[in-house]
Write a structure and sequence with these properties.
DNA-directed DNA polymerase activity; metal-binding; single chain; Alpha-Beta Plaits; Dna Ligase, domain 1; binds 2'-deoxycytidine-5'-triphosphate; EC 2.7.7.7; alpha+beta; four-stranded antiparallel β-sheet; globular; about 675 residues; MutS, DNA mismatch repair protein, domain I; six-stranded mixed β-sheet; nucleus
């Protein structure tokens, strides 16, 4: 948790903008006849009319809530309009909502640093815009104040009975004797009101906002008055707001920490925290958390608005509640393939539109064992380096699932080997791609080449040879009795099927460490070394075939550790090459996933296409076949390439007669980087 910088935070102007009943608004824009009617968006699902995931404010007046099912909503309000979430690949398709969110973000980002926090939430740092307004056209001197700004709720403003609320707001904004902080907030009020009106004009969506001196307070405020309103927290009102605020309402205190504060420390409101000295909180919860708690009690938060318009990760998931739980490996694979296909599409468009690449693929699942006392055991999440291409993502995700399932079923699975009853069920599956970074600027020309060929090449790689059978899971074959598992037992819950990955995406650096330590400390029961070790470990090991089969399974722990150190050292040494190596590795179309394949080691003169292309005559042909001109390589890219590739490119750029003889042979390396290799 960030440690605050109290001295600077008072003079910032931060807004949190949250769309109102967002999915409903998106559907109402598509079907304008629904505007003004009690409407709810329902998750694709036939059971009891599906789960409500967004409810219009008109419907809320009838008591309709998000936790209800469609049929319940109809009972409460027969005229409620239920709209189904669009469906693609047998699951909810959220792309329309995501795109609508992007439309809003592009408008909000016009006045300051903008951080997209979720599918319908944005933080804005408007400090510079407010300072500028204060200099050029201060609100105190404005003759007229925009009507929308006058509708603001200013916490602490005395709106006694009978007083004209808008007039009070106007006076507050016009105050000449206000301190600098309040003057800045007054500018924030005008800027945010204007932005919200712009959003309405351009997208037809309404939103609500909180305006304060930091993110924490702005977020608290934005939910206070909805829909289509804005709430302001002047510095002088912070204490009053926090004194009575239930501790669990604070972001990050809804979970275990909040419970501990209540149970162990008797803290029920944020204000209750004020009684504890910082040292005491640090003693109990550690230095950082202790300081953070001490700060939030005083409304202090140094968390910066990150300039991020794009999501931190992409995810695709689906739940399979109750009787719909997946009970066979092929059923899981079927759904994983659907999810991976969607994920792959999104990764491609992110690459295409934003020039970003993702590095880590993670599989999450929820599962149950029907006849196991250890029913609390969670299905382990697994990660591995992400390789681009639908077939590869599908293959890797399936491998991650298999590894997770083995760990999950443990000895139980072994015991039932050969029997008909396996007794597990998967109630939710999701795949996500994280560690998304922009392609280093110098690599754009190369990326363009890869991207140009990627779609067709990768889509043609849909293979059936990656369909591992249950035998590889050490499970009995046949799936008949899976359906016999008693499914009345598992708890049926209906979380949303797909969700925007909010700030809950785990800190991957920490995750990597955890993954690594678990890899070092355990060799899985089946002798399969997990691939959810640090992706950096794998990327640092360029010569190492990533294919699991090629890991030396007999390695003991110390060998493994020393190898890790060695690879890590290499990675650090090759730091500058990391990003582009990752990029190339991701695009490496070799089905084995090997960076330096068998094919690469063949000498020139072999009959395979790639090696024959290194003859001088073949060189032009290869250039043509790639559709990529080597001369177009941005020189700045060179520094990022591994030394052997740099040598090779330099040699290519030299006049032919100056090339050292061995260069022809060495050019195999670059061919492997750049060429779409044959399927072996
Ligand atoms: N959403 C979802 N499943 C949930 C919660 C939300 O699919 N369990 C989707 C539908 C919502 C959107 O995310 O429209 C935004 O969620 P919010 O929590 O911001 O709620 P709304 O925007 O619907 O309503 P509000 O006006 O209360 O913010």
């Amino acid at each position: 948790m960030p440690v605050a910088k109290p001295e600077s935070s008072d003079s910032r102007v931060i807004a949190h903008v949250d769309m109102d009943c967002f999915y409903v608004q998106v559907e109402q824009r598509k079907q304008p006849q629904l505007r003004g009617l009690p409407t709810a968006v329902v998750q694709y699902n036939e059971w009891k009319g599906g789960a409500l995931i967004a409810v219009s404010y008109e419907a809320r007046k009838f008591g309709i809530k998000r936790s209800m099912r469609g049929e319940e909503a109809k009972e409460v309000c027969p005229q409620v309009q239920l709209v189904q979430v669009p469906v693609a690949r047998g699951k909810a398709d959220l792309s329309g909502y995501r795109n609508a969110g992007s439309e809003v973000v592009s408008i909000l980002a016009r006045r300051g640093r903008c951080e997209r926090a979720s599918i319908d939430e944005v933080y804005l740092d408007l400090t510079d815009a407010a300072e500028m307004m204060l200099t050029d056209n201060p609100p105190q001197g404005m003759e007229t104040i925009d009507e929308e700004a006058l509708k603001s709720h200013i916490l602490g403003l005395n709106n006694e009975d009978g007083s004209d609320v808008k007039e009070n707001v106007r006076k507050w904004i016009h105050r000449h004797n206000a301190d600098h902080r309040d003057k800045l907030l007054a500018c924030g009020i005008l800027i945010v009101a204007e932005l919200r009106m712009q959003v309405l004009k351009e997208t037809e969506f309404t939103c609500s906002a909180g305006i304060a001196h930091n993110k924490m307070l702005a977020k608290l405020a934005s939910g206070m008055n909805k829909p289509a309103q804005q709430t302001v927290v002047p510095f002088s009102s912070v204490k009053g707001l926090l004194d009575t605020l239930p501790i669990r309402k604070m972001k990050q205190l809804g979970g275990k920490l909040g419970i501990s504060l209540q149970m162990d420390m008797g803290v029920n409101t944020v204000g209750d925290l004020l009684q504890f000295p910082e040292e005491k909180l640090q003693e109990r919860y550690g230095i950082n958390t202790g300081t953070w708690l001490w700060n939030i009690a005083r409304g202090i938060s140094g968390e910066e608005v990150e300039g991020r318009l794009l999501p931190k990760s992409h995810g695709s998931g689906k739940t399979f509640p109750g009787p719909r739980a997946l009970k066979t490996v092929p059923a899981v694979q079927h759904w994983l393939n659907q999810l991976c296909e969607e994920l792959s599409e999104r990764l491609c468009s992110d690459l295409d539109q934003n020039k970003r690449i993702a590095h880590t693929l993670t599989l999450h699942a929820r599962a149950y064992k029907s006849s196991d006392s250890d029913s609390q055991k969670k299905f382990p999440s697994k990660s591995c380096p992400l390789r681009y291409g639908t077939a590869k993502i599908q293959e890797d995700a399936f491998n991650l699932f298999q590894a997770g399932l083995r760990e999950y079923i443990g000895f139980y699975g072994d015991k039932t080997r050969g029997s008909h009853c396996r007794g597990w069920g998967i109630t939710s599956l999701s795949v996500s791609a994280s560690k998304i970074v922009p392609i280093p600027s110098g690599t754009c020309s190369i990326a363009k080449y890869f991207h140009g060929q990627s779609t067709s090449h990768f889509s043609s790689m849909q293979s059936s040879d990656n369909l591992n059978t249950e035998a590889t899971l050490s499970l009995p074959s046949g799936s008949e009795c899976y359906s016999e598992v008693n499914l009345s037992e598992p708890k049926i819950d209906f979380p949303k099927e797909e969700s925007w990955i909010k700030d809950t995406v785990p800190d991957l650096d920490l995750q990597e460490q955890k993954d690594l330590s678990s890899t070092l400390s355990e060799k899985t029961q089946d002798g399969f070394i997990q691939e959810d070790i640090s992706p950096l470990l794998l990327s640092g090991c360029l010569e190492q075939n990533r294919s699991k089969q090629q890991w030396d399974l007999s390695k003991d722990e110390s060998q493994f550790k020393s190898e890790y150190k060695e690879r890590k050292g290499k990675r650090l040494k090759d730091k500058g090459t990391y990003s582009i190596i990752e990029l190339f590795k991701s695009y490496n179309p070799n089905p084995s996933g090997s960076f330096l394949s068998h094919e690469y080691n063949r000498t020139v003169g072999g009959t395979d296409v790639s090696s024959s292309s290194y003859s001088r005559d073949g060189e032009e042909g290869r250039r043509e076949a790639w559709g990529y001109n080597i001369d177009e390589i941005d020189p700045s890219v060179m520094e990022e390439l591994p030394p052997e590739i740099q040598d090779e490119i330099k040699a290519w750029m030299q006049p032919h007669e100056q090339r050292p003889n061995n260069m022809v042979k060495r050019s195999c390396t670059i061919s492997h980087y750049f060429s779409p290799s044959k399927k072996s």
